[in-house]
């Protein structure tokens, strides 16, 4: 009879090894620079270096009490809110159609949805520059249709920035919604109809509440991206369409006021997070009942 | 009285002909099963009745009113889906309340009907639970209650037991049938499980490749199939091909490779036919019809023993023997069956 040899316990790979690369990347290239910006925002200004030796909260008080800054804050938040709302309204039907269609053209539509992501942002913004100019396609089309006499000023206004941002961020609301809607059993909506509810009622009572997680994900993503968008407002916004991100860069690059610019950037980040927390609080009721 | 009438329903998907001239009259309070293999068109038929699929031709009438083009919400029916399709963001009571609110039932009435229906499906006390907090069988009963609480004219069930485990499935068969008879609701039940269809239905509609193969009571379907597909799909069967050579009273005399057989059969048979005998109707003693063969294989089933037998002409039979049968592969056996236990139908 052979003696029973105790088996060595199976070696387990330590899981933390797998997250290490991501931790290094995030820690080294996001958290550390962010921390240094926070520190910088409390340093005194200097004319001969990036910042001086002493510490101050003066940049924050200056930023927060400046009505000019608040004007731009309001415009940025308003633009981001409008972009979020419009992308949701435009994106939801597309995502819904993509989630339910059995057409063989579905993959073509899917490619159309993500195609904006395949072209560089700067290139796309130049295209908008051409389309939205006073003698551009948008204005000539409106004029030819007899809707306007004088060209609408798209460029150097919040309107042009809003239109271009909606185009840029539409995929970011469609993709999370698509995943969410595909996970909803189509028979659930059929059950609503079989119980006597119209399409509309079934949508508002069943499908829409069930798609709240997708709406949340898409809305937060687009809102954050719109708040911090730089290229589009910088190229299309001019001074009247200027947003916070553009202002921060002006502080840093044009005025060479690094500590004040850092304070402005931190202020903007805190503001964005606050709005999202408020939004989550307000929508918590709708989310609570979902599995 | 006819509750539901399907008149020459046809359905195409592109060039695919999914349903071909489906005719069906369903009487008030009847339990009808649509039975067939997957892809036979039974679920499509149900969805046409429910209004989720538009028919390409023919008409659907509820209680004499044409509803062929009506929206699902206008048809006054309750439907139980294979996935149950409960509203996951609503409690059990809210799931039931949904259809009542649509019908603008007063809150007090609503509560009373919800309580009654939940009692009927033995789920009293579960009002505040969410579907995710219930077992599969309980979810199934909520789905049933949600469809019944609106007191529809017709109840549609789409393979409702397919996702339950075997023992629960057996219980639910009787539960659903019992409930249906107590409520007296006209019911259409889609299944691919012939056992379910046999024990639950007043009538079974056997479908295959988009056509109705046969429609009749469980007994008719099992004992008097009109085609090889029905004979094979419902229960086990032995079939032999043969040719009608004469009549003896109400019996046919049919010449087969294994000799002449006396059977009853569908009226007016002539020429090529098939003879069907169920395994449980074949004994090991000579009868009206006697065949000789050799045991090829025995399979112990617990309560009985399954014998595979081959005749001299090469026909294969399966039959049951007592579990303690001494027959072993290779033994010679005599098989006998009564003329009225064999059934002939057109080949």
UniProtKB/TrEMBL annotation, chain A:
Classification via InterPro entries: MetI-like, MetI-like_sf
Keyword set includes Cell cycle: no
Source taxonomy: Bacteria, Pseudomonadati, Pseudomonadota, Alphaproteobacteria, Rhodobacterales
Pfam families for the chain: BPD_transp_1
Membrane topology note: Multi-pass membrane protein
Localisation per UniProt entry: Cell membrane
Keyword annotations from UniProtKB, A to Z: Cell membrane, Membrane, Transmembrane, Transmembrane helix, Transport
Family per record: Belongs to the binding-protein-dependent transport system permease family. CysTW subfamily.
Protein name per Swiss-Prot or TrEMBL: Spermidine/putrescine transport system permease protein
Residue span(s) of domain ABC transmembrane type-1: 73-279
UniProtKB/TrEMBL annotation, chain B:
Source organism superkingdom: Bacteria
Listed name of the protein: Spermidine/putrescine transport system ATP-binding protein
UniProt xrefs under Pfam families: ABC_tran, TOBE_2
Coiled coil: none
PANTHER family with a match to the protein in the record: SPERMIDINE/PUTRESCINE IMPORT ATP-BINDING PROTEIN POTA, SPERMIDINE_PUTRESCINE IMPORT ATP-BINDING PROTEIN POTA
GO molecular function, one term: ATP binding
Keyword list, A-Z: ATP-binding, Nucleotide-binding, Transport
Keyword Magnesium: no
UniProt lineage: Bacteria, Pseudomonadati, Pseudomonadota, Alphaproteobacteria, Rhodobacterales
UniProt KW Transferase keyword: no
InterPro entries: AAA+_ATPase, ABC_SmlMolc_Importer, ABC_transporter-like_ATP-bd, ABC_transporter-like_CS, Mo/tungstate-bd_C_term_dom, P-loop_NTPase, Transp-assoc_OB_typ2
Domain ABC transporter, residue spans: 4-234
